[in-house]
Every structure is written in structure tokens, then in C-alpha cells.
Amino acid sequence: MKSPHSPATAPAAPAGPGPLASFLRFVLFGGGVGVLSGLAVAAVALALPWAIANAVVTVASTLLCTELHARFTFATGRRAGWRQHWQSAGSASAAYLVTSAAVLVLHQVQASPTALTEQLVYLGASGLAGTGRFLALRLYVFATGPGRGRGAAVGMNSVPMYAPCPVAAR
């Protein structure tokens, strides 16, 4: 007699949307929150110094985006936990560093770039960083299913979380 707790009878993780659908959602939610954040920074900067307003809005928008990505972009079926929030913040920080570095390098290479050149470099770096952030969120932070997500790198998902009770097997 099989134990009701055997891995074969464990409920399957939600499948979630495919890569293209989740990427389109990522762009929609992330871009939408980005546009709203730009407006919010301008409004909050009326009452606070710009750097503080930017920091407050960045934290709030990262929290909001992480929740939207958990619920809709990657359809995990649950709210984001602290682990997902910290990992998402880390990937957002890495994206910030990539875009900042790209603009700094531009200014080292070209003393006075035009606004168009600066925007092209920033948007190109932002697109590259956003693609990397999407992959990190999809393949690691919000990954579902066997062999994906936390523990996948060390093969932890192949180990059952609990063993069948020997008494129930009799």
C-alpha cells in the first residue's frame, strides 16, 4: 500500500504562464509601475529632497512590482514572501548598477554626449538589465515546478520533504 504522502500523490505546483506571456506581463507591469514611479518622484520631490523622494518611491515601487510579478507575471498563486522581496530587490539593485555604469562609461568615452545619445545608452542598458532581471525572476525567484527554484542548483528538489511513515506502510 502506498503512503498518501508519497511524492507521486503530492499536488503539482501551478504551471504558470509561458515565457512569452510572462515576459509581456513583466514589461507591462514593470513599465507601468516605472512610469507611475516617475510621476510619483516628481510629486514627492515637492515636499522632500529629490534623492530622498527617489529612494522612497524606489522602495515602494520595488515592493509593488514584486507583488505584481508574484501574482500576475509569473502566476505563483500566492503573495511574494520575504525571500522573493529580498531577491527581487537585489536584482533591481543590479539593474540600477548596470544602467548607472553604462551612463558613466558613456561620459568617460564622450565628454559631452547629446541627450539623445545618453538616452539611447540608458535605454539600451535598461533593456539589457531588464532582460537579465526577468530571467533571474523567472528562473530563480518565482520559479515553480520540479527542478526549478530554490534548491535546484544543488538538486534539493529531487529529495522528498518527508519520508513515508513505516507504520502506515504495513
Describe this structure in words.
- This protein has 170 residues and is an all-alpha fold.
- It is 62% helix and 0% strand.
- It is built from 4 helices and no strands.
- The chain has helices spanning 19-44, 50-73, 82-109, 115-141.
- The radius of gyration is 21 Å and the shape is globular.
- The chain starts with 18 loop residues before the first helix and ends in a 29-residue tail after the last helix.
- The model is unreliable at 150-170 (pLDDT under 50).
TL;DR?
The protein is mostly helical. 62% of the residues lie in helices and 0% in strands.
Features:
mainly alpha; 170 residues
Rg calculated over all Cα atoms: 21 Å
Mean pLDDT: 80
Distance between the termini: 8 Å
Q: What fraction strand?
A: under 5%
* Helicity range: 55-70%
